[in-house]
Structures are given as C-alpha cells and as structure tokens.
Design brief:
mainly alpha; 5 helices
Length: 86
C-alpha cells in the first residue's frame, strides 16, 4: 500500500522543518494540524513501512538509526548521544 498524502507530508516535514524559523512543535501544529505527540506517534509508524523507505531512503534510514540508538541507550542506561567503545 502506498503512502497517503498525509504520510508523505509528515516525512517531507521531518526532512525540512528546520529550514524555517520557529520551534518544531509550533511548526508541527501550524503545517500539519497535529499535536507534537501525535506527530511523533505517526512518524514512528510511518518509518517502519517499506513505502517510506522508497519515498525517502536517506531520511528513513537516519530516523531508524536514531531510534535504534535511543532504544539501545535506554537499555544500556546511557545517554543516546554517548558512544561506547566496543
């Protein structure tokens, strides 16, 4: 199933939100008419889809890596920004 126009808009917003002034939260409300919590919930669901990877492979791979780092950091009890030596 292809991404809906709304799902595409969410991915497009995530890729470019920082190019305009204002906080991300206010821009989410303004451009997508979503609460930030709902936006992140939908984004997480979209990123898991193969169609999202086809739509924007670089963004989706980056978001998947960041999510995996955060999960690993929670599991390890460290900050997501910290890097561990193997």
């Amino acid at each position: 199933m292809a991404l809906s126009p709304r799902e595409q808009a969410i991915l497009d917003f995530e890729r470019t939100w920082w190019t305009e002034p204002g906080t991300k939260e206010s821009r989410i409300r303004q451009h997508l008419d979503l609460s930030p919590a709902r936006y992140y919930q939908l984004l997480g669901q979209i990123v898991d889809r193969d169609e999202a990877l086809e739509h924007d492979p670089l963004l989706v791979r980056r978001l998947r890596r960041l999510r995996q780092r955060r999960r690993r950091a929670r599991f390890d009890g460290s900050s997501a920004g910290e890097h561990h030596q193997p």
